[in-house]
Amino acid sequence: MAKTRIQFICQSCGAVSPRWAGKCDACGGWNTLVEEGTGGIGAVPGGLRSPRKGRPVALTTLSGEIEDAPRIVSGIAELDRATGGGFVPGSALLVGGDPGIGKSTLLMQAAAALAHRGHRVVYVSGEEAVAQVRLRAQRLGAATAPVDLAAETNVEDILATLAEGRRPDLVILDSIQTLWTDLAESAPGTVTQVRAAAQAVIRYAKSSGAAVVLVGHVTKEGQIAGPRVVEHMVDAVLYFEGEGGHHFRILRAVKNRFGPTDEIGVFEMSDKGLREVSNPSELFLGERHAKAPGAAVFAGMEGTRPVLVEIQALVAPSPLGTPRRTVVGWDGARLAMVLAVLEAHCGVRFAQHDVYLNVAGGYRIAEPAADLAVAAALVSSLTGIALPADCVYFGEISLSGAVRPVAHAQQRLKEAEKLGFAQAVLPSGSEEITGGFGSASFLCATLADLVVRIAGSLRRHGGDD
Ligand code: TYD
Ligand code: MG
């Protein structure tokens, strides 16, 4: 009889430790170690099975017949865009997001759309009872769609159900945290269970050719709980995100074995479910005042994800001997540096002025790439010249006044383009730009170029008044 040892597994990163500790050594998370048996995945209770002799598989070459991955298109354009052209048969897709963001709503709408197109769709809810799911479907106007519905959490029962009848084209499992398999001994939601359940389901997808969608809740650190373990096992990972307190939702691909990962789908949550927003720029720019000086949009990156953030500056004459510098959401020392470079190399004087700098939406920017946007906002506020509303800025400023290229220029521009921006100010020497920004981008080599451009825009536009 195999001896059952106790081990502790970090629920955040999956690290295994022989004894309990308050802090995980691997990821530094507090209170994340949970006791789990060593049974692990696929372990046979009692360890009775003798090891099977391996069977050789046929080796092959890299070249040869390839079947282009066929796609199951939902007809919801923003969703199809994020998945890279539709669901891929035989693949597993993870949809992550905060609880309550709208994952179940989105997938119910997708299920209904696909069912109406004649695909067989099975929706397995582990979190809500059948009545609750029906209620939502009614609200979404999807109650008549021929979707097969079940409320079940046991993986073996789910797979047995799926094996009956016509092979489903799409299976939605909501959520991975509620699934459990007989093969693992731990409680549902633990790393061992989530990993084992996901593995079983992914194996089903590969062997049957059905597309499987797993729903995963994100923890407050922004990882998918039951966590990273699922992310690397699936073929594609989409995050569903909300933009601070708004009704807007962004579906973002962070991993995709069958398509690009720099696509986003934009939705708006309404009382009838998620509505596609095919031109987000209008909504996004609608909130901004085109003629307000002191605002510049920074095209930033958060890890591998591009984000657009508005930077606001207010430069006002100071009654104080030592003018005030106040920064929210950025580094104060960095602001002092940008001000010094503007004074020393561009002849822009701030010595008699208070400077307030704010990053909209409560964001915190850590990137030096924001320098150029900050400088643009400062010059705009000081001179009272509003910057073009459809322009984004990024680039690092060095002490010599040169503007240095930053990474991911292409990704920043792509996001800006998606959100309806038409112009960009970026460092000269940036990686080659393709796409719509080619002619409308202004490459500056030094900060003085930018100051001249902003001052020049007054002459161009203001001269007619
Ligand atoms: P839900 O899809 O249940 O979120 P998740 O599965 O990601 O946890 O959506 C939850 C929120 O969406 C809920 O707070 C109510 C809101 N909602 C609407 O505003 N309109 C609707 O038509 C629906 C179905 C939900
Ligand atoms: Mg849900």
List the total number of helices: 11
What characteristic shape results from the CA principal axes?
Answer: elongated
Report the major sheet. Answer: 9 strands, mixed
Give the proportion of residues in helices.
Answer: 25-40%
Q: In order across it, which strands form the biggest sheet?
A: 6-5-7-8-4-9-10-11-12
Q: From the alpha-carbon coordinates, what is the Rg to the nearest angstrom?
A: 27 Å
Beta-strand percent range: 15-25%
User: Quaternary state, please?
Assistant: single chain
Bound molecules: thymidine-5'-diphosphate, magnesium ion
| Count of DSSP strands | 21
List keywords for this structure.
alpha/beta; Rossmann fold; 3 domains; 9-stranded mixed sheet; 7-stranded mixed sheet; 25% strand; binds thymidine-5'-diphosphate; binds magnesium ion
What would you say this structure looks like, in words?
The protein has 465 residues and is α/β, with parallel strands linked by helices. It has three domains: 38 residues; 202 residues, P-loop containing nucleotide triphosphate hydrolases (Rossmann fold, 3-Layer(aba) Sandwich), CATH 3.40.50; 182 residues, 2-Layer Sandwich (Ribosomal Protein S5, domain 2), CATH 3.30.230. Helices cover 26% and strands 25% of the residues. It is built from eleven helices and 21 strands. The strands form four sheets. It has a nine-stranded mixed sheet with strand order 6-5-7-8-4-9-10-11-12. A seven-stranded mixed sheet has the order 15-16-14-13-17-20-21. A three-stranded antiparallel sheet has the order 2-1-3, with no helix packed on it. Helix 8 crosses helix 9 and helix 9 runs parallel beside helix 11. Bound molecules: thymidine-5'-diphosphate and magnesium ion.
